[in-house]
Recover the amino acids of this structure.
């Protein structure tokens, strides 16, 4: 396709996407109004059935896949996914758009209904608008407009809505990858909210672990007869503050991680609990007088591509052994919960080059290449699916994810849909003759 023909075809595609503006808004609102809170994983089947009905009407073959036996899957909260495929008239490459359907808890501080999908000042507000139902809707509109305009495309287009990304993705993309789904996929675009002029090449690594300190229970009026596990945990916290946190802050990466503060190693104390189990919410009495014999801390360590997993584990192990050597009766256990290695797609990969070219045409600017501070489902496509040709690209501001009054700009969704549609043109219409 020569440049004149390419520009004419892209203009027609853009006109179709612009004409679908109201449909894009309504689709996003419908998705947001299905509260797919995770944990525990609510309404997965409802949203998957909604997406299946929508995509089948536009010529896709769609199936529901349950991630049976994965973490969190149960008869009450089954881990449902939808995978839809539209074949072209001739064989060719497969472009797959993957979006997660789950959203995090609402939290406090909202001034709008978190599941009302209210429109105000060109924005749609609600939990999941930005992360990432707006991106899912944009990818669907892009695919539908492309199929309507170019009925003779080669290859195939896939759209998936998958479970549990917010809690590791094991019931969604990881399960699909284990079933071999990505063996027949060539390019993956994940419409996570990294901004419409950015291409996200990958993410930092993650290591979650639980540390438990042990003591001896005794009457609270005679603590000298017991051994306080919470005080032991306090010594661990003090050592972290004094030595580990400064050491992590001194480590820096060449990965283009955003925001700037995430270009160093970080660790978050995800939870901390010591002593008696929290009482039922209906209980209004007082706790009993006991010396706590157990304290537990969950840590969330994010690490750089320059670090090894063994190094990350070793730092915490060394810290605990140091505390043990300095503190009488100090006993502990450490349990690894899960880990993910850092990943980063090369800038010369086909999907990167295609989306970069499309951003230049739609937005008139060179894209910024970034790496996410947290992991997303690229980890499973890379490590389990063995597919490196994967990026995150989508509308929305990362800083709004998980926040009160989360929103998505309607104009950003339109622009991102045009970028995605143009990338489909490049990857499926112009194979071997890309302009």
């Amino acid at each position: 396709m020569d440049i004149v023909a390419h520009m004419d075809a892209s203009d027609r595609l853009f006109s179709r996407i612009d004409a679908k503006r109201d449909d894009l808004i309504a689709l996003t609102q419908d998705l947001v109004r299905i509260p797919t809170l995770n944990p525990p994983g609510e309404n997965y089947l409802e949203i998957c059935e909604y997406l299946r009905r929508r995509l089948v009407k536009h010529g896709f073959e769609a199936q529901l896949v349950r991630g049976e036996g994965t973490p969190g899957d149960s008869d009450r909260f089954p881990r449902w996914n939808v995978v839809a495929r539209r074949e072209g008239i001739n064989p060719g490459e497969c472009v797959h758009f993957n979006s997660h359907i789950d959203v995090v808890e609402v939290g406090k501080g909202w001034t709008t209904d978190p599941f009302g999908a209210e429109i105000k000042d060109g924005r749609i507000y609600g939990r999941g608008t930005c992360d990432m139902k707006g991106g899912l809707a944009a990818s669907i509109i892009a695919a539908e407009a492309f199929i309507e305009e170019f009925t003779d495309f080669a290859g195939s287009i896939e759209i998936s809505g998958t479970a549990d990304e917010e809690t590791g993705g094991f019931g969604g993309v990881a399960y699909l990858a284990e079933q071999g789904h990505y063996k027949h996929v060539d390019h993956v675009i994940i419409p996570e909210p990294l901004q419409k002029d950015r291409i996200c090449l990958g993410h930092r690594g993650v290591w979650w672990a639980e540390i438990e300190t042990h003591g001896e229970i005794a009457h609270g009026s005679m603590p000298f007869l017991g051994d306080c596990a919470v005080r032991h945990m306090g010594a661990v916290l003090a050592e972290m503050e004094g030595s580990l946190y400064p050491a992590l802050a001194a480590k820096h990466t060449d990965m283009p991680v955003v925001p700037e503060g995430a270009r160093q190693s970080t660790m978050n104390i995800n939870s901390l609990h010591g002593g008696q189990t929290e009482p039922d919410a209906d209980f209004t009495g007082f706790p009993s007088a006991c010396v706590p014999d157990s304290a537990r801390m969950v840590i969330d360590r994010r690490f750089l591509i320059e670090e090894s997993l063994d190094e990350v584990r070793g730092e915490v192990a060394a810290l605990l052994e140091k505390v043990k050597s300095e503190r009488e009766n100090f006993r502990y256990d450490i349990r690894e919960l899960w880990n993910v290695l850092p990943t980063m797609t090369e800038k010369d990969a086909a999907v990167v080059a295609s989306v970069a070219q499309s951003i230049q045409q739609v937005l008139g600017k060179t894209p910024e290449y970034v790496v996410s501070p947290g992991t997303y489902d690229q980890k499973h496509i890379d490590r389990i699916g063995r597919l490196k040709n994967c990026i995150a690209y989508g509308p929305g501001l990362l800083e709004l994810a998980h926040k009160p009054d989360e929103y998505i700009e309607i104009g950003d969704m339109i622009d991102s849909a045009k970028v995605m549609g143009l990338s489909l043109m490049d990857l499926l219409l112009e194979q071997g003759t890309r302009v």
